[in-house]
UniProtKB/TrEMBL annotation, chain A:
It comes from Lentzea xinjiangensis. Keywords: Signal. It holds the Pfam family MoCoBD_1. This is Isoquinoline 1-oxidoreductase, beta subunit. SUPFAM superfamilies: Molybdenum cofactor-binding domain. It comes from the Bacteria. Residues 193-277 form the Aldehyde oxidase/xanthine dehydrogenase a/b hammerhead domain. Residues 1-26 form the signal peptide. GO terms for molecular function: oxidoreductase activity.
Automatic annotation (TrEMBL), chain B:
SUPFAM superfamilies: 2Fe-2S ferredoxin-like, CO dehydrogenase ISP C-domain like. InterPro entries: 2Fe-2S-bd, 2Fe-2S-bd_dom_sf, 2Fe-2S_ferredoxin-like_sf, 2Fe-2S_ferredoxin-type, 2Fe2S_fd_BS, Beta-grasp_dom_sf, Diverse_Oxidoreductases. Keywords: 2Fe-2S, Iron, Iron-sulfur, Metal-binding, Oxidoreductase. This is Isoquinoline 1-oxidoreductase, alpha subunit. Residues 2-78 form the 2Fe-2S ferredoxin-type domain. Coiled coil: none annotated. GO terms for molecular function: 2 iron, 2 sulfur cluster binding; metal ion binding; oxidoreductase activity.
Length: 671, 156
């Protein structure tokens, strides 16, 4: 996409951007669209196309800011449009791995800067003056005291050969908006007025609603189905068995005119079940993982300290329960759904239905939270199967109970760490043995990749990480921070426990073990400075983490039985949207409070016990700490963010909890 | 199936549903009022919180028959353009992440401020502890409630 770059006149110069064939032609309505991401119409109205879904991480706002910056307009002058699934057109569309902002910054800036430079070139040509004497700002190109609005230049600019115009990005030292704006999210007004439309709000004309009677224990399959009473419920249209794998997690769907009618139909359904693991128990799963821990590595000296940590199942439980709408016809498939990878979903649906990708349309809705759950395509496959059976568009709606009990859960894990220490109590060597499960929704991820999360340990303490991966006895998937939330949480817990045992201050311990001058060391110093002295009577926990080209250090103070204040210092490279950066860190901290102090999924008699926010003990406002986010100035490239804060926040909270460090959650039986 | 006359956001609306149908589904699927969100269906998350005769209620566990003739106010009924003090506070503090729970958080706050114009932390906790936010916007919500209280009193 970018063939040449260098610094010229203080501006980063790129040329030959991705050109959409045909769109630059002067025929037809005036439109300037140097790439698929940015276009201006004949009235100069700017539209930014966001290729990746927004589930609250704020990618739509980041994209709008990037485009507004390079086109030198206000944020409000950029209209944001969500791209449908189409990887050939947009490239990767997955919102995962804290990648969206990192991977979109350059293409978005380049697209908008190209549009600006073409507009300036068109104005310069119109006036017969050198390009260097013209300037784009506020929606117009200016030359001395005259100006031409973008709209008046769009047709001329579109007729130019983009390759003939050097493209200069606005250098970061001249940014007006990026890193500086006090603006909130672009969707904020829609949210507070109730106008924001999520997947659950999508209902094409004539759409029916389906709810699914799901297996009562893990892996159970439907045998005989007595649907006479269900079909007699007013409004019920059809009862459809769903084959596991081909149609999601399996079960029996009741399709009706409305959700309450479908729910009444489901209540009337009588199904016998067989197979599966009706005796499954998550406490036993932890025992099995512990028994499978790799043998202790050979230590270079006497092992002075050893600890074992157990981590539970966790549900994603996004506020918007799983849902998807599909309309399958003989000639094509249309899907409207809150998903994290619309492009990948389209490819999968084409493969599964035998349709050409061109005949599969995936419209991405706003997601009411995702946290990795919407990388799973189960609910979409259910919707396609229901639409096939009903011959109509069908919206599949999961209840909260369905959502909680049929998630792709964060895997359990057991960690055993051991250390050799020196005379001052500092570790000189440590070994980390881990037993966990793979992600069943991503079987392509091998143990070697899982083990990479063990290599993120940044302290100057050598030692091996050994991993055993057992077959998962329940559906598992990506949960915010993925395996870093296991491996690095356990490492920090162990360091914290070691410090407590040796009587070494938590901050001193880390300062002595982090490479001097490292970004993490600077972030730790920034967090400690902001946190100030530990309040009288408070317990303090500290932890650090590096991932996605970003670093985070957390100081957590607990007093009177609850977490009072959490300071998180982050170096996320160039900051794009300050409020959004803080929001993602705040969110990671709240996830940490939730999971360290109570929330877990347990399985008894083959069944997930928790069914709603009544018993999945997620944090409420009354136990939420004050969170102070410090943005450490940085010249590093834009780093990842969404999954950065959870592991260190959880570890800092745990270390400063006063509880015995058993794993997660603390103070209750795990599993 | 029965016919119920509802007052929703100042308008008279009619729905034809069994009387035990949760108000939430009547609003969303019969009347196209989509601001109140489905989050749990059992009154445990607060995403659908709306006002019935000015008090916070959970439409997912409120039967249509029980609100016939009463005033139902959803997030859409607060203001035309988001200029209610609570909405303004939410915008100022950029509270929302995914935003899905926020109509419920806002409506719980409106109900709180209508009976307690200057709530302390304990009152905020009591009023909002049954509104779950899965993105973790709680510290901004707390600040926004305080800000809304000041805006509602006409302070800057």
């Amino acid at each position: 996409m970018i063939t040449r770059r260098g610094f010229l006149g203080g501006a980063l110069v790129v040329s030959a951007p991705l050109v959409v064939p045909g769109l630059a032609a002067a025929a037809g309505p005036a439109e300037l669209a140097p790439t698929v991401f940015v276009r201006l119409d004949g009235r100069g109205r700017i539209t930014a196309t966001v290729p990746r879904p927004d589930a609250g991480q704020g990618v739509r706002t980041v994209v709008a800011l990037l485009v507004a910056e390079e086109l030198v307009v206000d944020l409000a002058d950029v209209r944001v449009e969500q791209a449908p699934g189409d990887t050939a057109r947009y490239g990767s569309q997955v919102a995962s791995g804290s990648r969206s902002a990192r991977q979109l910054t350059e293409p978005m800036r380049t697209a908008a800067a190209t549009a600006r430079c073409l507009l300036v070139a068109a104005a310069a040509a119109r006036w017969g003056v050198p390009v260097e004497e013209c300037e784009a700002r506020g929606g117009s190109v200016h030359h001395r005291d005259r100006r031409l609005p973008y709209g008046a230049l769009v047709r001329d600019a579109a007729a130019l050969d983009p390759a003939s115009v050097p493209v200069a990005l606005v250098p970061p030292q001249r940014w007006r908006l990026l890193g500086k704006t006090r603006a909130g999210r672009v969707d904020a007004r829609d949210v507070v007025t109730g106008r924001a439309r999520y997947g659950i709000d999508t209902r094409p004309r004539g759409a029916l609603v389906a709810v699914v009677l799901r297996p009562p224990w893990i892996g159970a399959r439907a045998g005989s189905v007595d649907d006479a009473a269900a079909r007699a419920v007013p409004g019920v249209v059809a009862v459809v068995p769903l084959e596991p794998d081909a149609a999601g997690q399996g079960g029996v769907a009741v399709i009706a005119r409305s959700t309450p009618e479908a729910l009444r139909g489901r209540e009337a359904l009588r199904v016998t079940w067989h197979g599966g693991t009706p005796a499954a128990d998550s406490r036993r799963w932890l025992d099995e993982l512990e028994a499978a821990l790799p043998a202790p590595a050979a230590a270079p000296g006497p092992v002075a300290f050893e600890a074992t940590y157990r981590l539970p199942l966790l549900a994603h439980a996004p506020m918007e329960p799983m849902n998807a709408t599909a309309h399958l016809t003989a000639t094509g498939l249309a899907v409207w759904a809150p998903v994290q990878d619309p492009g990948g979903l389209r490819t999968e649906l084409a493969r599964r239905t035998g349709l050409a990708e061109a005949d599969v349309r995936v419209e991405t809705a706003l997601s009411g939270g995702a946290f990795g759950r919407r990388l799973d395509t189960d609910v979409v496959l259910e919707a396609v199967a229901c639409s096939r059976a009903a011959g109509a568009p069908v919206s599949v709606q999961w209840t909260r109970d369905d959502d909680m009990r049929h998630d792709s859960y964060r895997p359990m894990s057991v960690h055993r760490l051991s250390a050799v220490v020196d005379g001052s109590g500092l570790p000189t060597w440590r070994a980390h043995a881990v037993a966990t499960w793979p992600l069943t929704i991503a079987p392509q991820i091998p143990p070697e990749i899982i083990k990479l999360s063990g290599d993120q340990f940044r302290y100057t303490v050598p030692g091996p990480v050994d991993l055993a991966v057992l077959p998962a006895p329940i559906r598992t998937g990506f949960w915010r921070s993925v395996y870093a939330g296991h491996f690095q949480y356990a490492e920090e817990l162990f360091l914290g426990a070691l410090g407590q045992r040796s009587g070494v201050d938590q901050v001193d311990l880390r300062r002595r073990l982090l490479p001097p001058g490292s970004r993490l060391r600077r972030a730790l110093d920034a967090a400690v400075e902001r946190a100030g002295a530990t309040p009288p009577g408070a317990l303090r926990g500290v932890a650090c983490h590096e991932d996605f080209g970003s670093v985070c250090a957390v100081v957590a103070d607990r007093a009177g039985g609850r977490v009072r204040r959490v300071v998180a210092a982050v170096d996320v490279g160039q900051v794009l949207h300050p409020s959004g950066v803080r929001a993602q860190v705040e969110g990671g901290v709240m996830d940490a409070v939730s999971t360290v102090f109570g929330a877990q999924i347990t399985v008894r008699d083959g069944r997930v016990v928790q069914s709603s926010f009544r018993d999945y003990a997620w944090l409420r406002i009354d136990r939420a700490p004050e969170v102070d986010v410090v943005l450490v100035p940085s010249d590093a490239p834009v780093g990842g963010l969404g999954e950065l804060a959870f592991p260190p926040a959880a570890a800092a909270l745990a270390v400063g909890s006063g509880h015995e460090l058993t794993g997660m959650p603390l103070g209750v039986e795990i599993g | 199936m029965s016919r119920y006359r509802l007052h929703v956001n100042g308008e008279r609306r009619v729905v034809d549903v069994p009387g035990d149908t949760p108000l939430l589904w009547a609003l969303r699927e019969q009347l196209g009022v989509l601001g109140p969100k489905y989050g749990c269906g059992v009154g445990a998350c607060g995403a659908c919180t709306s006002l019935v005769d000015g008090r916070a209620a959970r439409p997912c566990v409120t039967a249509v028959a029980d609100v016939a003739g009463r005033q139902v106010t959803t997030i859409e009924g607060l203001s035309a353009d988001g200029d209610h003090p609570v909405q303004r506070a939410w915008l100022e503090l950029d509270v929302a992440q995914c935003g899905y729970c926020q109509p419920g958080q806002i409506m719980s706050t409106v109900a709180l401020l209508s009976r307690d114009p200057d709530p302390d932390d304990a009152a905020i906790d009591a009023a909002l502890r049954d509104n779950v936010c899965r993105c973790g916007t709680y510290s901004r919500i707390r600040a926004a409630v305080r800000r809304a209280a000041r805006l509602a009193r006409g302070e800057r």
